[in-house]
Amino acid sequence: MFRKKIFSSLAVILLVLSTMLVLRVQASSQTYWEAPLPYEDALLNQTLTTYKHDTYAEVGLSANLYELDKDPLGAEYEFDIAVVVAANSRYCQGYTTSYKTDVVDLWNEKILTLGDDGGAWVDMGIWFNYYGAWYKKAFVSSNGFVVLDGRAYDDSGGKWTSPAPKTIPSTDDPNILIAPLWRDLDPSKGGSIKYGEGPSGSFVVAWIDVPNKANSNTQTFSIIFYPDLGGDLCFVYDSITNDVPTSIGIEDQTGKRGLPIEIGSISPYQRVTFKQNSPNNFLRISRIKVSASKLTDSGTNDDNAMIEISGLDNTLPGGVNVKLYDPSEGQYKSFPVVSAACFVLSTAGLATGYGWFGVVGYVVSGANLAYQLSPTPSSTVHEADKATKTAYISDLAQDENHPDQYPWDASVFALLRWRLNQSQSLNHRLVLNAQVDYGGETFTLVTDNLELKLTPGSVSWYGRTNPDAHYYNFYQISTPYGTGYHIDTIGSNDYGYHMLGWTKLTDDEPEDYKVRPDGTIRVEGYFRQSDTFASSDQPGRRLMNIYVMYSENLNKIVETAQVLDYSDGTDWKYKSAVVSGLTPGKSVKIGVGRPDSWYADWNLVAEWAGINVYDGDSFRLSIASSSGGTTNPAPGTYTYGYGTPVTVTASAYSGYYFN
């Protein structure tokens, strides 16, 4: 410290506040995205989705806004958009029941040897339609039920042979459930389980004189699966008792739909028939179409833009009749029937390979799913030059080999390239929708629009959410510390995600930040936050973070460092944060934002400006002095390479001394 013998001081404080909005990025929860053009190539990683249904059909559309490329002269931009559409005409598909007293010969020729709480796959010898999917294998449980879910290949957890009956319907496993008498049975104590061909080419599974585990009372009942398109099945009862916990009924692939039967309504020698209620068996999908229109703000053709349809080898429409593969061949991953809305969300990222999708099993995502389930397309492709307003792909739905008629699913995957000539300062709009014709083109269903808008500008940050496809507003602001950025969740009750702005927009990893040799990155700058939390809720909820994502997976936040908490209030604060625990030398991207984990719209806001990132081999040295002396190097902030020795010398002015 330098100390002066004679005291004097002069302080001048200048405060400038400005909140004028400059450039805006907005993404509603799923259907609208607006942004200024970036100053460099940008990896956008945004997803928009929309969904619609009518009485019989449903259709979902997703657009993954992947990458925006800028040419070296800055006159043109290329915007790559991957589009997935899924449609089906089974929207209201379900079952009705009827009762009849009947005697049926159930004594089949094949015995299935099962122990207590045992199960095994059997070949039905027919294609059986169940809630809109085709199955050829069934997993039989000794406890009075059958499942058609391919995940039952692995019953290490016992849920596919559980002795404890659940409520029907229920999203808990097992699903794709057919349960004539689900209870704790024990065939090791007596009786038999048989299967084989039944009346009229049907397939039958029968539990014959199998005792309850809790007592010696025996049960005789069966399931009859009919091979016709209607997907009918029957529960047939010879003699059963009502003396232990039991569930009876059927359940779809998600566990959200089903029909329960009260055991008290069952009498000896009774048949309960389940009949699918689809009109005319099934309404065939005839055509699926994806349209993209390039527009000005007034809705006329944007003659400064073009739309190309690339990657036509990956444009794969067609009938998608879901089937269960043979577990004995290792192809146990059954393709589940999911709604069109779920399908487009699960394929939004367009990753290849298998991915877990909730409780319904494995799906193959994006183009890979369409490739495996669809035949060669019959496509009409119409691109849009500068003079043409709308580009589209129109595809005839086609049948699969098994069964070879009545497709009621169709999907399409396409790659669009939206090319912009930005020689003039204009807004550019792109409007997407999907159309499905079904019932011999008697019915048409069209989605609501997805809209993208690019405005003049040049930004180095973009907004996004983690996970993707949630709500945010993002724009550029002026601050006392130079150009800054703002992101908020105002206007939506969407929750359960992180909103963040991120920089180093390019997908070129060498341009990204690099983790320092000690596994850290330092981020400093000015930060501000606000919200409408009550004071009692602010601890633990009012906070602002630095997020780090490895460049190869922008969707995964690997480390987080908090820069603001509730005690920092709502004013600008200068903060420096070190993010640790990273892999030295890895390429990373930096984000700034807030978590939105609460059940209401609390108007969360995060703002930042003057951000400096110390990465790679760089370390920061800040030197300061009081009045009365100086240093060499002079006071200021310096960046040095890792391990560099630095000498700092302090000297006092005349009339001052070191204390």
Write the layout of secondary structure elements.
Elements: E1 2-4, E2 21-27, E3 32-38, E4 42-53, E5 58-70, E6 76-88, E7 95-101, E8 110-111, E9 119-130, E10 133-141, E11 145-147, E12 177-182, E13 192-197, E14 203-211, E15 218-225, E16 233-239, E17 247-251, E18 258-261, E19 270-276, E20 285-295, E21 305-310, H1 340-346, E22 354-356, E23 362-364, H2 366-373, E24 379-382, E25 390-396, E26 409-421, E27 428-438, E28 443-446, E29 450-459, E30 461-466, E31 472-479, E32 482-488, E33 497-503, E34 513-514, E35 521-530, E36 544-550, E37 559-564, E38 573-579, E39 587-596, E40 605-614, E41 618-623, E42 629-632, E43 636-641, E44 649-652, E45 656-658
Parallel strand pairs: 3-29
Antiparallel strand pairs: 1-45, 2-3, 2-31, 4-5, 5-6, 6-26, 7-19, 8-13, 9-10, 10-11, 11-12, 12-17, 13-14, 14-15, 15-16, 16-19, 17-18, 20-25, 20-27, 21-26, 22-23, 24-25, 27-28, 27-29, 30-33, 31-32, 32-40, 33-39, 34-39, 35-38, 35-40, 36-37, 36-39, 41-43, 42-44
Offer a concise description of the structure.
With 659 residues, the chain is mainly β.
